[in-house]
């Protein structure tokens, strides 16, 4: 079984156990806030189950119908998880408002508090582990699952503090007030998750990654690479697709052009740890390129080099040679 699938499966099984523990805590205490936490755990289980399937599907090889692979299912998985989180938050708020109007007694608070504290600790550790692994495996699904568990852990710890406060003050209405606050916190985190997943589904640029790539290219540029433009970077799950245009001396033969393109490919592959696919289009230089071309001993140069154009996000992403910008 692939590492991603093992991690998600472990997360699913642990989420089921923790959900049962939270419902046990609710039946012991009859606390609306604990029921809120338990209800969110149902979302954890559903989300982990869908995440398992999406990671399985994303790992499938490219085929005729999916030439870029199946990686984008991970963005859809994160969207579903974020939507479920938002729904859970809304249900929590509605139930809590109802209990403010029709309160119920809370019993055995300390027993329930210990159980919730334990589940929060486990969720926090598991969420931290998933987020750390998502960076090495480059999986938005695992990252989403990890962030969701961290959110759950934070809400559980907040709930523990609230239950302790109720125990010492006997102000039972705080139970519903805490639940409402947790509900809004959960909705906010669900929104952040769905926002990121929608951006991925719509091929939104990862400006941080793209800026790092441009900086790396600028530091390692070769004189024959007169300019790079129309640079785009897209994520498909764990895969990254990069395409760009590179301006080369027009008199290079096909073998030389192929070698230069391969050099760019190799350079970027060393900088990016993930599986990367390139589409590099070679453009011939024009006389107007001479003033910023650094190639020495060029027999067709029509004017001397007068400037060096630093590659930046604003000039390499435009679909224009640099003299046109």
Summary of the model, kept short:
With 325 residues, the chain is mainly alpha-helical. The protein has nine helices and three strands.
Describe this structure in words.
The longest helix is centred in the middle third of the chain and has 30 residues, at 140-169. The protein is built from 9 helices and 3 strands, in the order αααααααββαβα. The protein has helices at 3-29, 32-58, 73-101, 109-137, 140-169, 173-201, 207-219, 254-271, 313-316, and strands at 227-236, 239-248, 275-284. It folds into 2 domains: 3-201, Up-down Bundle (Alpha-lytic protease prodomain-like), CATH 1.20.1510; 207-324, Cation efflux protein, cytoplasmic domain (Alpha-Beta Plaits, 2-Layer Sandwich), CATH 3.30.70. Strand 1 (227-236) and strand 2 (239-248) form a beta hairpin. It has a 3-stranded mixed β-sheet with strand order 1-2-3. With 325 residues, it is mainly α.
